[in-house]
Design a protein that fits this description.
Length: 408
């Protein structure tokens, strides 16, 4: 059974606010080929305009998987011209509601088996007064439980994964509006939740400090708002090319996460961005969670929430596997050249590197000594060798600010 890279389940299309206008099926296919991503979430499947565009531009190649029509594929480097990319129908929905005396804000990702099911799902959402035409990621007043119930009543095959489960503001375990246990959120439907998404500010080792989550499979994806950001986080899984095999792999945990270091995420440490306060949970406790500059509570980050729920101090040996850390190639080139990721100098060097024949994921995941001759860039090879050796200084992100990673 071949291993495929599965990434970016909750992409936000050009029908979403604050996203790139290039988030079209053509550009998603183009960047997935260059990145080395085989299977990609369609995103925003609850939006009628996006669903219509996908139906027009995609064709079903295997049960539940779709490919961009050949006439629409954009030109790409010769090595990736024939790369196979499949779309799987996904969408993220935000639930904001009152439950047990507290406002809850939960994001969930839904995987749908076909366009017919997606159309019925949209119709059922509208019957419950969900405005699916306002934005690609709609906000509904249904609880996470009731939204999942609606999905399963639409089609029992629909698969639900709680999204970026530790993000403070909008997630299952979020410090601001989440729960302390999955059962509190999904109640009698908890058995239907088998898989959780780590998010940019958390990783597998952190989550495995909580023994009650051992039975859940973990996946990772990057919540891309522009096509060049695909694959910052991703998931390797062993599956056949069909919808059910991919869902089964996620359910059974036959996966390996590919993550940026969680310190690089926006909510790893606690803090207050306006006052430039960034704290490890120990410091937060020493200050009773109050910013010494403005006197307001700091935003509690992912690491603190994990510590609150953890019942282990270290990971059991049988769980110390199935993840790998990466740094996106444009960021690596930016570090080497000393200019911004969007600069012409970085883009040109990125293009020249891919023109040698390796996708970005092949460059990042393989042993640099095995690919040195193919990369043909000693600066990139040297950077990767030092990166994989762990010689890093990590400045964690906090309260919406991305963190920084530096080579020692």
């Amino acid at each position: 059974m071949k291993k495929y890279i599965l990434a970016d389940f909750h992409i936000h299309s050009h029908f979403s606010m604050a996203t790139s206008k290039n988030l079209s099926p053509e550009h998603l296919d183009f960047w997935a080929r260059r990145k080395g991503i085989n299977i990609i979430g369609s995103g925003d499947i609850s939006h009628p305009g996006w669903l219509a565009e996908l139906k027009q531009k995609l064709r079903e190649t295997e049960p539940g998987l779709y490919q961009l029509k050949p006439a629409l594929r954009l030109p790409v480097e010769d090595a990736f011209q024939d790369s196979e990319v499949r779309f799987i129908l996904t969408g993220e929905i935000s639930s904001i509601y009152k439950h047990k005396g507290k406002t809850r804000k939960i994001h969930n990702i839904f995987f749908l088996p076909d366009f017919q099911t997606a159309a019925r799902f949209q119709a059922n959402l509208e019957k419950r007064q969900v405005n699916i035409r306002s934005d690609g990621r709609p906000i509904c007043g249904l609880s996470a439980h009731d939204l999942l119930e609606l999905a399963l009543n639409t089609d029992d095959r629909i698969f639900c994964v709680p999204a970026h489960i530790w993000t403070p503001w909008f997630s299952l375990f979020g410090a601001k509006s989440g729960y302390d246990a999955i059962e509190e959120c999904f109640e009698d439907l908890t058995p239907r939740i088998t898989t959780l998404e780590t998010g940019l500010s958390a990783d597998v080792p952190m989550i495995r400090l909580i023994s009650v989550l051992d039975k859940y499979s973990l996946i990772s994806s990057s919540d891309a708002h522009s096509p060049g950001k695909l694959g910052r986080n991703a998931t390797l899984l062993a599956a056949e090319y069909n919808w059910q095999s991919i869902i089964n792999a996620m359910k059974t945990g036959d996966t390996q996460t590919i993550d940026m270091y969680p310190q690089a995420g926006k909510y790893h440490y606690d803090g207050h961005r306006k006052c430039q306060i960034c704290w490890h949970p120990r410091e937060t406790s020493q200050h009773a969670g109050i910013c010494p500059i403005c006197g307001k509570p700091v935003t509690i980050g992912v690491l603190n929430r994990v510590y609150q729920l953890a019942d282990r101090s270290e990971i059991p040996p049988d769980l110390t596997k199935n993840w790998q850390f990466i740094m996106p190639l444009p960021e690596i080139i930016s570090r080497i050249t000393g200019v911004g990721e969007k600069s012409k100098k970085v883009i040109t060097r990125y293009d020249l590197t891919l023109a040698k024949g390796l996708s970005e994921m092949q460059i990042l995941l393989n042993d640099p000594t095995d690919t040195e001759n193919l990369i043909c860039d000693p600066d990139i090879t040297g950077f990767l060798q030092r990166f994989h050796s762990g010689s890093l200084k990590l400045n964690p992100g906090y309260d919406g600010e991305y963190g920084n990673i530096h080579l020692l």
